[in-house]
Design a protein that fits this description.
- With about 170 residues, this protein is of the alpha+beta class.
- The chain contains 8 helices and 4 strands; from the N terminus they run αααααβααβββα.
- The protein has helices at about 5-10, 15-25, 35-50, 55-65, 65-75, 95-100, 105-115, 155-165, and strands at about 90, 125-130, 145, 150.
- α2 packs antiparallel against α3 (about 35-50) and α4 packs across α5 (about 65-75).
- The longest helix is centred in the N-terminal third of the chain and has 12 residues, at about 35-50.
Length: about 170
């Protein structure tokens, strides 16, 4: 990567994000920087809430990759958002184990409480309720949901309220 390209990418990515990318790049052989794309996008999204084309291009430039290599990762994984959305990302599992244990009631409770449907964000930009996810692999804790990639299990409407209140 040229010095100019590196500087341009550095201007878009925060110091924290660059440090996080550097930390992941160091885990792989020098010719395998593509392996750090998921971690890089995760760091960007964690800070900004979603991925802009500018931030994805900056990640590509910083890693010395084609933008396409970054776009394909961002569009493949459901954990990445490329449209403006709320800060805290909620995924309520309604797959089979969770459904049998009340997952759909939990989802309805979240929708009622936040006044939004799946795929929408609250007007204050605080929450984004993601579209339906496949099983999140925590079936023995059903019903469960994930908020900002943290798992919350054995949910009841009361514990959901407490969890939502904790996310400002
Ligand atoms: S069905 Fe919900 S975590 Fe597996």
């Amino acid at each position: 990567m040229s010095e100019a390209t590196h500087r341009e990418a550095g201007a878009v990515l925060s110091q924290h994000v660059r440090a996080e990318i550097d930390r992941w790049v160091a885990k792989f052989p020098p010719e395998r920087k593509r392996s750090a794309v998921i971690a890089a996008l995760h760091a960007v999204q964690h800070e900004a809430g979603f991925l802009t084309q500018e931030s994805m291009d900056a990640v590509a430039a910083y890693l010395g990759l084609l933008p396409l290599h970054v776009y394909e990762v961002a569009s493949f994984y459901s954990m990445f958002e490329t449209q403006p959305c709320g800060r805290h990302h909620i995924s309520v599992c309604t797959n089979i184990s969770c459904m049998l244990c009340g997952g759909e009631e939990i989802l309805a409770h979240v929708e009622r409480r936040l006044g939004i449907r799946m795929g929408e964000s609250t007007p204050d930009g605080r929450f984004f309720l993601k579209k339906e996810e496949e099983c999140l692999a925590a079936c023995n804790g059903a019903p469960m949901m994930m908020v900002d990639h943290v798992y919350y299990e054995n949910l009841t409407p009361a514990t959901v309220d407490r969890i939502l209140d904790e996310h400002k």
